[in-house]
From TrEMBL:
GO terms for cellular component: cytoplasm. This is Mth938-like domain-containing protein. The lineage of its organism: Bacteria, Pseudomonadati, Thermodesulfobacteriota, Desulfobulbia, Desulfobulbales. Coiled coil: none annotated. It comes from Desulfolithobacter dissulfuricans. SUPFAM superfamilies: MTH938-like. InterPro entries: MTH938-like_sf, NDUFAF3/AAMDC.
Length: 116
């Protein structure tokens, strides 16, 4: 099986052969481009609500190349209350994990911050 997310570098990700240069949300193998958050380098439950139905087992948050995007302090607890495990890590690692979980047929969603 070919990886869904084919390449990531600062400010750029290639998925299904299409290049994206702004932050994205992911739901399984679906891409929702142009992801904006209420607080630029923060991520709240409201920011990811549109990819939580159907409910994923895991939400992968790519925090940027340097990890500057931070989940809000309550996000992990709020997702856990919904039965969703949060994994927040720099985007390069998040891309690898997302592909791995998708290959293993996990129900997943994610958000990738492509820059800092």
């Amino acid at each position: 099986m070919r990886d869904m997310i084919e390449e990531y570098s600062f400010g750029r990700v290639r998925i299904h052969g299409e290049v994206h240069t702004s932050d994205i949300l992911l739901q399984g193998d679906r891409v929702l481009p142009g992801w904006w958050r209420k607080k630029g380098h923060g991520c709240s439950l409201d920011d990811i609500q549109e990819v939580l139905e159907p409910r994923p087992e895991v939400f992968i948050l790519g925090t940027g190349s340097s990890g500057l995007l931070r989940p809000d302090p309550d996000l992990e607890r709020e997702l856990a209350a919904l039965g969703i495990h949060l994994v927040a890590e720099p985007t390069a690692k998040a891309v690898l994990r997302y592909n791995e979980l998708l290959r293993n047929r996990k129900t997943i969603a994610g958000g990738l911050h492509l820059t800092c």
